[in-house]
Amino acid sequence: MITKRIIPCLDVRDGRVVKGVNFEGLGDVASPVELAEYYSANGADELVFYDITASAEGRALFTDILCETARRVFIPLTVGGGINTVADFDRVLKCGADKVSVNSGAIRNPALIGEAAKLYGDQCVVLSVDVKRVDGAFRVFAKGGREDTGMEAIEWIRRCVGDGAGELVVNSIDTDGVKGGFDLELLEKVCAAVSVPVIASGGAGCIEDFITLFRTLPGVDAGLAASIFHFGEVRIRDLKAAMAANGIPARL
Amino acid sequence: MVAIIDYGVGNLFSLKSSFAAIGQEAVVTADRDALRSAEKLVLPGVGAFRDAAEKLRASGMGDAVLAEAARGKPLLGICLGMQLLFDRSYEYGEYEGLGLIHGSVRPIADVIARGLKIPHIGWNALSFRRQSPLFGRIHDGDCVYFVHSYYAADCGEAVLATTEYGAELTAAAAKGSVYGCQFHPEKSGDVGLNILRAFCEDV
Q1: What is the per-residue pLDDT for B194?
Q2: Chain B CB contacts of A244 below 8 Å
Q3: Least Cα separation, residue A159 to chain B (angstroms)
Q4: What is chain B's alpha carbon radius of gyration, rounded to the nearest angstrom?
Q5: Number of Cβ pairs closer than 8 Å across A and B?
């Protein structure tokens, strides 16, 4: 039976992990490579790296870090942030990324997903979408959640999957950072609309939130979180054990 | 030394790194002499069968692999590289493979329960079907990382391990010194590295 995946997300700026990290046994807590190794050794099923650098130097540094991570970590690696062209796909795939996540780049250029899927296969193209409720509708936000595109989220997701997005990261802006649980209403609508794997993001505050997610929505394949893992509020080993104890398939 | 066969399909950075991580020298190569002098061969692959089979033939690497396999040199096919080891594939048509292991590659949609997602992506458990030195350093039930929409069917005795995804799908197969893994050992954490270690040292 396929297991439900637990995915820590690392935001990287100028070569450092942005959200604070608080772990014993890590020499350099802001080193993305060390943190990736730590997570890999402690039960993470996959890693997501988001490059939130604005400068060209920062971008070069990011690709160096990616290469170093892929030399030392042997679980799947998804990379996002600043992916606007097929050349960006090429740049990160050559550094050892397995999947590439597009967000604002696909909003600016809707042909990007189709082009990338043709070149690298659907399984390589991940659509990351930031969703927020506006006047009772789910809307797609761009630029890290700052800009309302006016697009209806489920329609956008359907279209991108039709173009070749092989997986979805669905991030709810409404629940993100609140630590009150995942956005089950949004995720249920997404699961009903598409048949590709769905990664839930935004809102996890404790182990129980993941249990509720997987129990309520069997169509969700993975749960993603950042700070609760970085700060040790939820340890992945404990989370996996709790999943198994609740009958949710987990890789222990 | 391990030769990772480069025939223009996919990205071999992680695969090469995984051998470095277990202290094995590996080269990515499209050179016949390098294949001849290597102790072990790895046939990688991602993408579509037809495309990969054509590139394998056009690059001359297909014949080189057959020649080395005929001499009994251990060969490990990974993912699409595993599927290429079989007689034929029915991915968007019917295409010839290398024929090193008897069987055919068919859509998982033909056998899995309705409603399951395709591709089969993620970590799933191995069920051993027979003993193999390839799995001498891991355990029955260990999870490995899969990404595929097709699987090796009708391969009978060759099956080494299966995985359950609405049906028992072939996860690994072997005939003589020719081995194939449908999953990605280079993305399967310590379990995967132990499979590669066994391929290097015990096969």
Answers
A1: 98
A2: none
A3: 18
A4: 15
A5: 77
Is it the case that residue A127 has pLDDT exceeding 70?
yes
By Cβ distance, the residue of A95, A98, A197 closest to B117 is: A197
Given A51, A130, A176, A183, the catalytic residue? A130
Could you tell me how many helices (H) and strands (E) chain A has, helices first? 10, 11
Interface test with B, best of A38, A72, A74, A251 (most B CBs within 10 A): A74
**B-chain residues within 8 Å CB-CB of A76?**
145, 187
What does chain A come to in residues?
252
- Residue A57 is part of a domain; what is its CATH number? 3.20.20.70
Tens of pLDDT, residue by residue over A218-249, are 999 999 999 899 888 999 999 999 999 999 99
CB atoms within 10 A of CB B20: 12
DSSP character for A124? Answer: G
From CA A32, how far away is CA A38, in angstroms rounded? 10
A251 in a structural domain: no
State whether residue A40 sits within 8 Å of chain B by CB.
yes
Q: How far apart are the first and last CA of chain A?
A: 13
- Structural domain contains residue A123: yes
Q: Which fold has domain B2-201?
A: Rossmann fold (3.40.50)
With beta carbons under 8 A apart, name residues in chain A contacting B46: 121
Instruction: Quote ipTM for the complex.
Output: 0.93
pLDDT tens digit sequence for A4-32: 999 999 999 888 888 656 666 666 678 89
> Which of B124, B147, B187 has the CB atom closest to A74's CB atom?
B187
Residue A127 corresponds to which amino acid?
L
pTM attached to this predicted model: 0.95
Query: Could you tell me the pLDDT band of residue A53, with boundaries at 50, 70 and 90?
Result: confident
Residue among A40, A95, A197 whose CB faces B121 most closely: A197
